[in-house]
Specification:
CATH superfamily: Jelly Rolls
CATH topology: Jelly Rolls
Strand content: over 45%
Number of domains: 1
CATH class: Mainly Beta
CATH architecture: Sandwich
Oligomer: single chain
Structural class: mainly beta
Strand order of the largest sheet: 1-2-9-4-7
Distance between the termini: 18 Å
Length: 107
């Protein structure tokens, strides 16, 4: 996962819960209104995404579209998506900088 033209450090925590595995990944969106990408793992059966600060998140499945054609997550809200996502990339923006993003995946 990386912002357009920049790289990001992230951390991942694995939680084993039979029969699936949950992984929680955290990363920082350093710059406001800048598109960052996150690729869901192979055989992902759902994900949850939220910000740790009060901000608007814009999410798209198409590169370059997170500021044009996107889904908005309002401050203090969490997006939960169920279904099968095989190596799908999410493109994410926040309206403020230095926001920690948490994504929980179910594999």
């Amino acid at each position: 996962m990386a912002g357009i033209g920049s790289s990001i450090a992230s951390s991942t925590t694995t939680i084993v819960s039979s029969p699936r595995v949950k992984k929680i990944t955290s990363f920082v969106i350093f710059l406001p209104n800048t598109e960052y990408s996150f690729t869901l793992p192979v055989d992902c059966y759902g994900y949850t995404i939220q910000a740790r600060l009060k901000c608007f998140l814009k999410i798209s499945h198409d590169v370059g579209q997170s500021g044009i054609n996107y889904l908005t997550i309002h401050p203090c809200a969490t997006l939960i998506e169920n279904g099968y996502f095989n190596n799908t990339t999410l493109y994410i923006q926040a309206n403020i900088g230095s926001v920690i993003i948490e994504i929980e995946t179910l594999e």
